């Protein structure tokens, strides 16, 4: 695989990224080719490789969690459970789009390890400095798994009862579960 050419964000690079951001969630990693992306962007397929180094690198750059966790982790840890759940349930499509694209591509070579890295960087590492106790890392990992489970139930399984539930009820109840991991009661 060739190395991408570092550069400022050119119109061609933006067009390729936009095409990939549209195609990967719609047709999946396996169902999207470099030619598809190039065609959607109106460029030669060689430019996709030149700018991004290959399909995998473009996929990972396109769907990486560019989610700003600052509003969640900058608040008090005592109310972070509800804040985190409210954040992932935001009616915007970014969290859903990225989650589903990564999940659908998780069996492609190289994507599984990138998923683990994204989970660690996106959920575990931001929590670690905020949690106390010898089991802080385990609780941070469990918190990430708990949030992932909710997203799976909503967007993969399509649990109709959960989807029909008022989001604030989910925020309150699921946020309380998450909060127990973040700030457990003293023994």
From TrEMBL:
InterPro entries: Homeodomain-like_sf, HTH-type_TetR-like_transc_reg, HTH_TetR, Tet_transcr_reg_TetR-rel_C_sf, TetR_C_16. GO terms for molecular function: DNA-binding transcription factor activity; transcription cis-regulatory region binding. This is TetR family transcriptional regulator. Keywords: DNA-binding, Transcription, Transcription regulation. Residues 33-52 bind DNA. The keyword DNA-binding applies. SUPFAM superfamilies: Homeodomain-like (SSF46689), Tetracyclin repressor-like, C-terminal domain (SSF48498). It comes from Microcella daejeonensis. Signal peptide: none annotated. Residues 10-70 form the HTH tetR-type domain.
